Structure formats: C-alpha cells, structure tokens
C-alpha cells in the first residue's frame, strides 16, 4: 500500500505544490520562503516519519498569513487524500511532547469531522518571519482540510520557539500514531462503517 498523494493549488496569493507520503522515513524538501516555518515543517516530517516535498510561492511582500494558512489547507487535503478510505488505521493519536521548559499535548481523531481546540499563549508576536498568531490559523486549516478533530494544548511554556516546535513535533507524533495500520481492524474503526 502506497499511501501518498500530491496536490497543486494556485490562487492569486499562493502557488503550492505538495507531495506527502504517510509511510516515509522523514525525508523533506521544503521551501515556503519563511525560514522558521520551513524549520517547523522539517521537524513535523522528521518526527512523524512523513516524506514531504513542498514548494511554495506566496505573497510574502504582504505578510506571512496567506502562505502559512494555504500550506495548512493543502497539507490537510493531501493527508486526507493519501489516507483514502482510512481502512485499518488506528484513527486516534495522542502525544505529550517536552521541549525544554515547554510541554504540549496533541490529541487527534481522523474522524472526517473537522474541529480544532487550540489552547496556547504566546508572549512574542513573531519568531523569525513567522507570526505566532499564525500557529492557530495553520492548525485550523490542517484540521479542516483533513477532516480531523485536533486538540493542541500548552501544558507549560516560556520560550516561544520551544512552544511552537513542541506543537509541530507533538502533532507529528500523534498523526503518526493515528495513521498506523492495525491488523485487527479489517475495515474502518467506526460503528458507522466509514470515516
């Protein structure tokens, strides 16, 4: 089973080409034009063992908003497409990840029903060229693009770089768990018969 998908999305604000492989080894070729965002997506790829090829041309002369949000939309869509009918996947994933003084809980359900609960407080407006308020927008876009119930909660924090990195890594680990195949599940893990 090759759980892989590619999406190209072009608007007046962004041009995005993304290939995503669920069953990868954490290889990434990522160019969004936002250095810190690239760093976060590399961490997501590496710690979730997802292979990602992402190239973005965005209207960064305006700000980082459209690029980050649109990457979230496309990442959610490509995850959904790569998982197909979601047969035999565990569906749920949770992880509590420490990053120095920061501790983040991520819990998710690949239910097909999008919802985001985001509970974190940033003390800086930016980390590099990444506006910290865009973290919530990114994860909102991913959750809705993928049809994913996603909870991210700061349990402790301090340094904004550490807090953001803990979020992306915790999300990677939780998604890796939720997408794992379980031989005990012969169809989909739902009483409805589909996800």
Number of helices: 4
Report the portion of residues in β strands.
25-35%
Poorly predicted segments? none
Number of strands: 10
Radius of gyration: 16 Å
Strand ordering within the main sheet = 1-2-4-3
Which word captures the global form?
A: globular
Average pLDDT, to the nearest integer?
97
Biggest pleated sheet: 4 strands, mixed
Write up what this structure looks like.
This protein is of the alpha+beta class and 195 residues long. The protein has helices spanning 35-48, 65-83, 134-146, 160-179, and strands at 4-10, 14-21, 28-31, 51-58, 92-99, 102-109, 115-119, 126-127, 130-131, 149-156. Helices cover 34% and strands 31% of the residues. It contains 4 helices and 10 strands. The mean pLDDT is 97. It is globular, with a radius of gyration of 16 Å. The chain starts with a strand and ends in a 16-residue tail after the last helix.
Q: Gist?
A:
The chain has 195 residues and is of the alpha+beta class. It contains 4 helices and 10 strands.
Observed structural traits:
alpha+beta, four-stranded mixed sheet, 31% strand
Topology of this structure?
Layout: E1 4-10, E2 14-21, E3 28-31, H1 35-48, E4 51-58, H2 65-83, E5 92-99, E6 102-109, E7 115-119, E8 126-127, E9 130-131, H3 134-146, E10 149-156, H4 160-179
Helix pairs in contact: 1-4, 2-3
